[in-house]
Amino acid sequence: MSIELIDIHKAFGSKQILRGFTLNVEDGETLSLVGFSGAGKSVMLKHIVGLIQPDSGRVRVDDQEVPKLSRTELYALRLQVGYVFQFAALFDSMTIAENLAMGLQKLEGMTEAKIRDRVAESLSLVELEGFEQRLPADLSGGQKKRAGLARAIAFRPKYLLYDEPTSGLDPVTTTVIDTLILKMKQELGVTSLVITHDMASAYRVSDRVAMLYEGRVLEVGTPDEIRATENPIVRGFVEGKPELVEQGKSNGNGVVANNGAVPQRRNE
Ligand SMILES: Nc1ncnc2c1ncn2[C@@H]1O[C@H](COP(=O)(O)OP(=O)(O)OP(=O)(O)O)[C@@H](O)[C@H]1O
Ligand SMILES: [Mg+2]
Known about the structure:
36% of the residues lie in helices and 22% in strands. By secondary structure, it is an alpha/beta fold. The chain has a single domain, classed as Rossmann fold (3-Layer(aba) Sandwich). The strands form two sheets. It has a six-stranded mixed sheet, with helices on both faces. Strand 7 (159-163), helix 6 and strand 8 form a beta-alpha-beta unit. The chain is globular and about 60 Å long. The protein starts with a strand and ends in an 18-residue tail after the last helix. Mean pLDDT is 89; it is low at 256-268. Residues 41-42, 86, 163 line the site of magnesium ion (MG).
């Protein structure tokens, strides 16, 4: 029960986005993927649910080869993998309850009463009790993000994929979301992959942090290992120091032989 991305290459036209991207998310773990804007984080995430097909490489979820699944199999897989989109992606003309209930009737044994309970329970997990009849337009940015998360967890998935769950939020709301990510792991036992720009968040919620750079995983390690990184590009990114990134590029330190499957250890 894990997510395995093995040597993925993906280009759009002449633009090579992923160039040998390899990463494992272990059962029960929360892994954060960080990287510069436009690096290909969202593209990588979409491979996991079959929204994007790799040019080459393997995408395995729950021991299934995602690019080889039939429509029906893919649909079944998507019920196991909650996707919290970068921009909430709620249907504006539907109430929050309707947004959350969509598709739930397809789960086995789901009656209308059970759906209502599940919706209420999911809203309560993200601290939006009583928001059933509200429309997305009436919610703040942070509330929308939480409603997006509630919709993903309404399916009680084994996996949760979060695309920038805290971007554009104030520090307090960010902490609320981080606490929710931790709660999903503790209370629902989900395996999570979180895409984020926010290093404080990444350190708070993650068992491991990986950095995507030039289409590959440049480094992966525990928050402590990443804090102590000696790679100038990783250090420049996590500390917000562009001059270190430039230095790393000119030293050729951006290219590190690392398949991303095991945490890198520092040579002490
Ligand atoms: N369907 C598509 N067709 C063509 N190009 C695409 C497509 N999807 C993404 N791209 C391009 O791939 C690159 C990576 O995009 P992606 O959205 O993965 O970046 P990101 O790392 O998630 O950035 P951000 O942090 O800004 O969200 C960008 O140059 C983007 O324009
Ligand atoms: Mg993105």
